[in-house]
Structure formats: C-alpha cells, structure tokens
Amino acid sequence: MPAADPSPDQFRELMLNEEPGLQDVLACVFGIQRHEARTYETLLANPGSTVEELADVLDRDRSNVNRSLSTLREKGLATRQRRLLDGGGHVYQYSATPLSEARDLMHKTLDEWTAYVHGRIDEFGDSEDERA
Fold first, then answer.
1. What is the pLDDT, as a whole number, of residue 2?
2. Phi/psi of residue 49, nearest 5 degrees
3. Buried (b) or exposed (e) across 31-47, using 16+ Cβ within 10 A?
4. pLDDT in tens, 114-124
5. What value does the mean pLDDT take over residues 31-59?
6. Global pTM?
7. Residue 50, burial from CB neighbour count under 10 angstroms (0-12, 13-18, 19+)
8. What are the chain's domains?
9. Of the chain's two ends, which shows fewer C-beta atoms within 10 Å, N or C?
10. Residues in a beta bridge with 80
11. pLDDT in tens, 79-91
12. What is the predicted pLDDT for the residue at 5?
C-alpha cells in the first residue's frame, strides 16, 4: 500500500485548483485534514510552541490540536521535544519539519503513491476473471 492515500475528492480538488496552496497539497499528498495542514503552517511560523500556545493561535481546543500534532508527527511533518520546567515537571514543544525537508517528503510520498498506482494499472487484464 502507498504511504499516502489521497481521497478522490482531495485529488480532484487539487487538480482543479489552478494554483493550489501549501495546505491543499499537504492535505492531498499526505491524506490529512485541512486543519492539520493549517497546524503545520502555524508551526512553521511558531517553532517550539506548546499545545496550549498552538490552541490559542489556531483558536481550537487543545485535544484537537493534540490529535493534529500526532498526525503530523506520524507523517514526519513535526517533531516534539520535552522541556523541563523550573518548578518541576515538563512540557512538550513542537516544531514543524523545515519546509525544504517537507518538500522532499512530499515528492517522495507522491512518487511512492504514483509507483503504486502505475503498478495497479499494469496489473489490469492479468487475470482472465477481470473485466474492464
């Protein structure tokens, strides 16, 4: 299975958009939600943010921001570092994967997905049971 699984609607939307933005491409290539792509862009502008800080900037609930960050980390688009607090305890700070690395990751992910689709196309007609 390919690394990305863009929905048909995301793919169609991207193709019809004359000038897709970063959020559009991220959502399609990585199969993520638009709010997760927005979280990535916000992290680019605010490296080292905590969940609470991001929730304030994004005007979203902390639990929703946490889920977005988990998705971004799974896709390789964000990192997390633990910072010890002076009074004890710790807090996690998040940063976006640099845009140059994210571009490379987008190319790699899209290339893997394209290779998968090409492989599926090549398989059509290999079985007598398959009908067009």
1. 41
2. -80, 150
3. bbeebbbbbbbbbbebe
4. 898 899 899 99
5. 96
6. 0.80
7. middle
8. 8-109 (1.10.10.10)
9. C
10. 94
11. 999 999 898 899 9
12. 59
Task: State the pLDDT at residue 114.
Answer: 86
Amino acid at 80: R
Mean pLDDT within 83-108: 94
Mean pLDDT, range 87-113, rounded to an integer = 93
The torsion defined by the Cα of 40, 31, 21 and 94, in degrees rounded to 10, comes to: 10
Nearest to 38 by CA among 19, 59, 8: 59
What DSSP letter does each residue of 4-62 carry, written as one string?
Answer: ----HHHHHHHHH-SS--HHHHHHHHHT--HHHHHHHHHHHHSTTB-HHHHHHHHT--H
Answer for the pair 23, 34: CB distance below 8 angstroms, yes or no: yes
Q: Which residue in this structure is represented by tokens 């019809």? A: 16
CA 56 – CA 61 distance, rounded (Å): 8
